[in-house]
Design goal:
The chain is an alpha/beta fold and 198 residues long. Helices cover 27% and strands 38% of the residues. The chain folds into two domains: 59 residues, no CATH class; 129 residues, Nucleoside Triphosphate Pyrophosphohydrolase (Alpha-Beta Complex). The strands form two sheets. The chain has an eight-stranded mixed beta sheet, sandwiched between helices. Strand 9 and strand 10 form a beta hairpin.
């Protein structure tokens, strides 16, 4: 199963039929679905095919794919480092540089955006996908996520040139409170973190 966020709408591609699901008919159908969802608000569409790999390849062929990586940074006490950017609570992430590994890119982005020392990767979190347009070109951003550990006493410095205005440690109650002010793909990462799926 793949979950793709189109603004705050969610497109689910699966190989399991369910009530209300759409049968996959081809790439043109997928293109029209994306266009329709990009102009609607908070809708969810479930499409299925018995050949999920084929449907997923067809879907990906509609976009230029940009790879990014980021981290959910946890302190030994169990608090989570969150950033505030563009009116949303977020996790640090950014585009991979040419030839850069996912792990190295995730660590670099965390260090740059939060002004922290190098964290230690302790687990792999789900990859997220979201669609947007860049100068009229359809983009599918694939973000690789890692669970990381970092001492809470490390100094924090938001990367202002990336429009990050705050970097704060949040306990479980605070994360729950801020979750509704984050993006859909970030909520998926937070849910995986909470369940220990890493």
């Amino acid at each position: 199963m793949y979950k793709v966020f189109i603004k705050e709408s969610l497109l689910i591609l699966s190989d399991t039929p369910q009530e209300g699901a759409i049968n996959y008919l081809g790439s043109e159908q997928l293109r029209n679905l994306v266009k329709s969802m990009a102009t609607s608000e908070n809708s969810s569409v479930y499409i299925w095919s018995s050949d999920l790999p084929k449907m997923w390849q067809s879907f990906k062929s509609l976009f230029r794919i940009i790879d990014a990586a980021g981290g959910a940074i946890i302190s030994p006490e169990g608090d989570l480092l969150m950033i505030y950017r563009y009116g949303h609570w977020d996790l640090p992430k950014g585009k991979l540089e040419a030839g850069e590994s996912k792990e190295a890119g995730a660590i670099r982005e965390v260090m740059e955006e939060c002004g922290v020392d190098e964290p230690e990767i302790v687990g792999v979190l789900p990859t997220t996908y979201h669609y947007y347009e860049l100068e009229g070109e359809p983009i599918l951003k694939r973000s690789f996520w890692f669970a990381m550990e970092l001492d809470k006493n490390t100094p924090l410095k938001p990367q202002l040139e990336e429009d990050i205005s705050q970097v704060i440690w949040c306990d479980a109650a605070k994360v729950e409170q801020l979750k509704d002010q984050s993006y859909g793909n970030i909520r998926l990462v937070l849910e995986a973190l909470e369940k220990g799926d890493w």
